[in-house]
Each structure stands twice: as structure tokens, then as C-alpha cells.
Write a structure and sequence with these properties.
Blueprint (H helix, E strand, L loop, with lengths): L4 H29 L13 E3 L6 E3 H17 L3 H11 L3 H40 L6 E4 L6 E4 L2 E2 L4 H13 L5 E3 L15 E3 L6 E5 L4 E4 L5 H8 L17 H6 L16
Parallel strand pairs: 5-7, 6-7
Antiparallel strand pairs: 1-2, 3-4, 8-9
This protein binds flavin-adenine dinucleotide.
The site of flavin-adenine dinucleotide has 26 residues, from strand 6 and helix 7.
């Protein structure tokens, strides 16, 4: 069953030949793979020597880098500007200064001209809007503490609802801003506005008091002191008060004024 001696010898020789053959092929394969010409075609994470044999690098990585480089060379959209930048860097300081003047001065002049035109247009628009509203004399309006002031020709004090409606309609039509200002007591001068102001001082009537509902109806320009006076005959008063009573009800409510007493709501919630 084991065969003749010659057969065994022959079998051993064939195995050795096969081993030698396989090793030779492996060696040739490795040698071929390490050739530079093979690298661009190689795929996968095979490691092989780089061209100089000094570094070892992934073939896949090398291939990827080559592709990216090719794409950059072909499609670089900034190559023109890069060229200009390099050109500029190669100039000496005098040439650079001259180049900056040639480019910078016309650019600055053009931008300045555009800004001037825009500014003039805005001013003209403001003037047109102002003309459409009836203007008075120029006057300086200052808050109570004299810490803030504005100069304006548009300071209106309507006497009744009709006048107020007319002013608001005109301002709306002309896209003009009208800021309501009360007694001007706010230390930050929040009611002041140079574009235009409506002051409600002349609309300060107490219109009605309802004792049952504990409700009082007043015009927005009524002072807190006037409201207190009007409530007194009915045995009523305000739930919460500030330390002064010269505010107009409009401003008093708007700033959500309050007095002492953590459990008491501010005036706009009482
Ligand atoms: C000496 C002093 C003491 C003070 N003590 C207190 C205090 O104890 N507690 C407290 O809370 N505050 C206090 N304040 C702040 C004062 O109460 C508020 O600044 C005041 O209520 C604002 O009312 P005004 O009428 O002066 O409004 P302004 O200051 O003229 O305006 C305030 C705001 O209200 C708006 N406004 C005014 N009227 C109207 C309206 N009719 N319709 C819509 N919006 C309007 C304005 O546009 C602005 O935004 C004090 C201020 C002073 C000077």
C-alpha cells in the first residue's frame, strides 16, 4: 500500500519542488507589488515599500492622495487668485505700496461715493416724511432727571381723540415713528425719541368711576395724583403706588411701576 521506495523518493522530490515553486512565486509577487509602477493600480490595504524604500505607506492612501492632487490641479477655482497673491508677494515694498494705492484708492472712492448717495437718499426720505407731518418749532425735550434729551420738531400734544387719530393715521401713512411719552419721569429717558413724540398731557380727563366694580376709566394722560383724587370720594384708592404720584397713567402702567410689599402686584396687574 505504501508503494515502492522509488515511488516514495519520487513523492518527496515532488513536494520539495512544489514548495520551491510556491516560494518563488510568492517572492516574485512581493517584488512586483513593491515596484512604483504597480502602486497606482494596487487596491486594498496592502502594505509595500514606497518609491525610495525609506518610508512605508498604504497603497490605498497613496492612490487617494494622487487622485486628490489631480483633481486640485484640474479644477482649482482659486488658482487665478493664488497666482495673483504669489505675484504680489514677489514684489518689493515700493511696488507693493504702489499696487495698494492703485487698487485701494479707487475702491475706497467708489465705496465712499456709494455711501454718500445712500446717506443723501436716507436724509431726503426723512425730510419728505417730516414735511408731511405738521412740524412745530425745534425744541429740546428732556427727562425729569435731565440725564437724557432729544431735539425734535415733531412733538405733538393732541387735545382729543380726533386729533390723536389724525396724527397716528398720518404717521402710519408716511411710515414715520411717533413715540408716546408720558411725564418723562423714567430715569433712562425711555420715552424720548428724536423722530417724533406724542405727549398725552392734554388728554387727562377722568371719564368714569364704577364703585361696584372698583373700576376707574381715565384718559392716558391723567396723572396718578388725579386718579387718587377722583377715587377718594368713593372711599377707594390704588392697591399699589410708587413713591411719587406725578406719572401719567399710560407711563405708570407701561413701566409696570410698583411700591413696597412683595405680595402686592405691580400697577398693571392690580
Ligand atoms: C423721583 C422718582 C421716584 C420714582 N419712584 C418709583 C417707585 O417707587 N416705583 C416705581 O416703580 N417707579 C418709580 N419711579 C419711576 C417712575 O414711576 C416711572 O418712570 C414712571 O411711572 C413713568 O411714567 P411717565 O409718565 O413719566 O412715563 P415716561 O417716563 O414718559 O415713559 C415711560 C414709558 O411709558 C411709555 N408711555 C408713556 N405714556 C404712554 C401711553 N399713554 N401709552 C403707551 N405708552 C406710554 C413711554 O413710551 C415709555 O416707554 C420713580 C421715578 C422718579 C423720577
Amino acid at each position: 500500500m505504501l508503494g515502492s521506495r522509488d515511488d516514495r523518493i519520487s513523492t518527496t522530490t515532488n513536494t520539495q519542488r512544489m514548495k520551491t515553486f510556491v516560494m518563488q512565486r510568492c517572492w516574485r509577487f512581493c517584488k512586483a507589488v513593491s515596484q512604483p509602477s504597480f502602486m497606482p493600480r494596487a487596491q486594498g490595504w496592502t502594505w509595500c515599500s514606497s518609491m525610495q524604500g525609506q518610508q512605508r505607506r498604504s497603497v490605498w492612501e497613496t492612490r487617494k492622495m494622487q487622485q486628490a492632487h489631480e483633481v486640485l490641479e484640474k479644477e482649482d477655482p482659486y488658482s487665478y487668485y493664488r497666482g495673483k497673491s504669489e505675484e504680489f508677494q514677489n514684489l518689493n515694498s515700493n511696488e507693493r505700496a504702489m499696487r495698494s494705492v492703485y487698487v485701494g484708492v479707487p475702491t475706497a472712492a467708489f465705496l465712499g461715493f456709494c455711501f454718500y448717495i445712500y446717506d443723501q437718499e436716507q436724509k431726503q426720505k426723512q425730510l419728505n416724511r417730516a414735511k408731511l407731518l405738521e412740524e412745530g418749532d425745534e425744541q429740546v425735550v428732556t427727562n425729569w432727571s435731565a440725564t437724557h434729551s432729544v431735539t425734535t420738531r415733531r412733538f405733538f400734544q393732541p387735545q382729543d381723540l380726533g386729533e390723536l387719530e389724525e396724527l397716528v393715521k398720518k404717521a402710519h401713512k408716511n411710515k414715520t415713528r411717533l413715540h408716546v411719552i408720558g411725564a418723562g419721569l423714567s430715569p433712562n429717558g425711555i420715552g424720548l425719541d428724536g423722530d417724533g413724540m406724542i405727549n398725552m398731557s392734554l388728554m387727562d380727563k377722568v371719564l368714569a368711576v364704577d364703585k361696584e366694580k372698583k373700576q376707574i376709566t381715565v384718559q392716558a394722560g391723567a396723572r396718578v395724583s388725579q386718579v387718587l383724587e377722583a377715587l377718594k370720594p368713593y372711599g377707594l384708592t390704588l392697591q399699589n403706588l410708587a413713591s411719587i404720584s406725578e406719572q401719567q397713567i399710560g407711563g405708570f402702567m407701561q413701566v409696570s411701576a410698583h411700591g413696597t410689599g412683595a405680595s402686592l402686584p405691580p400697577v398693571d396687574e392690580q
